[in-house]
Agmatine deiminase family protein
Amino acid sequence: MSGSDRRTVLRALVAAAAGSVPVAACASGGGAGHTKRGTGETGEDGDEEMTEQPKPSRSGWRLPAETEPHDRTYLAWPPEDSVWDDLLPGLRRDIASIARAVAEYEPVTLLADPRNAADARRACGSGVEVLPVPVDDVWVRDTGPVFVTNPRRDRLAGVDLRFNGWGGRATRRARDERVARAVLAGAGVPRTVAGLVAEGGGIEVDGRGTLMATESSLVNPNRNPGMSRDEIERALREAFGVTRVLWLAGVRGRDVTDHHVDSLARFTPGGAVLLSRPPLAGDGDGGVWTRAYEQAGKALAEATDARGRRLETVDLPEPDPRLIGRRGPDFLACYANYYVVNGALIAPRYGDRRADETAAAVLREHHPGRRIVSLPIDTLAEGGGGIHCATRERPAVKAA
């Protein structure tokens, strides 16, 4: 069976597990697909007992903005038995490239099956720590814990979002369901269990009390059956210490994530929100991503943040799909899926020279003092994700 045939089978498995999930554009648009790899054989659900810590909001704990100082970054090394098939070598090159780029600015911990640890270390360099944690896939943003800090910022806790394979679509997820617990155990960080099911890519915070999310992803029976939007919002406030939640409509059922916010709208340190704008030529999926972009812009223009300030929105145009050097039906072409590290910002580069340069300029303007590092990530993008999807920050805390 050819590589393309195997990918066709994979998409059929996704559709069968999800009840027919068409290939979507960049989670905000862009005419490129967003069907994350991570489906395959049926995996058993996690059955470990969950021990719940006090809710962060009750004692002043909060989720820092990604732009605040980091202690380290986590990534995951794709295992031999992943669903990536013939794309695995290219994927490993992309993960190694990201790991090496991040390691120039802060420590990196790479989660890897013990059997692959030596290969991972060779590929990513001696400066990268390898933690023996079995994974199903590379999407540590969604599977890993979300770290919160106490008011004095001298202690950490980790919020386990109870990853369920994007609403059950990823049938191969038994190892990924345990990633948050394993990371926290390895770091010696207390674990708190969220009062909702979500993924890290589904939330975006400014570090000053405001959180953004899409209704399509969180107010969804495949994750939170029987919960109203108000109940989900209360759970978000409790988990992350925020006081205002900004809801964007999003798009349900067109991609495996149900439209994560980290490929639609991102906060900047100056208070602006960067919006991923689909190509002017059209998003290639009946305009659903363009409408989601327009709705998000309107909603944010009418909103205020937790401090009562009006929000400025700035377009981050996606590349022209005709000019991308490589693309498949699941390709995520979205500059908003960047990752901020200490002193730099790691952004994707797609091969549309004008769009690549425009994105770098916008990101540089709104993240002053940071170097913009642009990386080609064609294989990772072909699997439906980006740099932000594959990374998870651990905030820095003061010495006790």
The two ends are 57 Å apart (CA to CA). Residues 1-34, 39-52 have pLDDT under 50 and may be disordered. The domain at 3-395 is CATH 3.75.10.10 (L-arginine/glycine Amidinotransferase; Chain A). Residues 3-18 form the longest helix (16 residues).
